[in-house]
Amino acid sequence: TDPKGLKGDPALTKIQEALTGKFKTPTVIPDKVIRTLKSKVSVQITSAGAITSFKARSSGNPHFDTAVKQAIQRFMPKEGGSARLTSVPDNVRAAINDRKVTFVFDGAKLRR
Among residues 1, 75, 65, which one has the least CA distance to residue 38? Predict the structure, then answer.
């Protein structure tokens, strides 16, 4: 979602790519099924690019939902994650932290 006019912002694209890049597609989900699954995620991030918390809407598939959670946790130091979201401008971070921006894990666009 994009109520702050950030649609197409390169920083959001980089964040989306970083998050989905850490997604490991569960092999127990058939290709035909995975293409139908989506989960929307909102996150809280620090100025250093770490995620401090997140909320994810269920895709309806517990294996997919677990994989989404694990991808996000790779950016959460308190969960042992060491990845960071780099170069997040203050206005973009503020919109993300205000939960006005969500990121989508779309099974049709994720690679196996």
Answer: 65
Contacts 24+ apart (CB under 8 A), 91-97: 91/4, 91/6, 92/6, 92/9, 92/11, 92/12, 92/15, 93/45, 93/47, 95/4, 95/6, 96/15, 96/42, 96/43, 96/44, 96/45, 97/44, 97/45
Could you state, in chain order, the average pLDDT of each consecutive group of 10 residues for the chain (112 residues)?
A: 65 94 94 96 95 97 97 96 92 91 94 70
* Inter-residue contact 38 to 107 (CB < 8 Å): yes
**Which residues, 6+ apart, have CB-to-CB distance to 100 below 8 Å?**
1, 2, 3, 4
Sheet holding 103-106, edge to edge: 51-56, 38-45, 103-106
Which two three-digit tokens encode residue 100?
């006005």
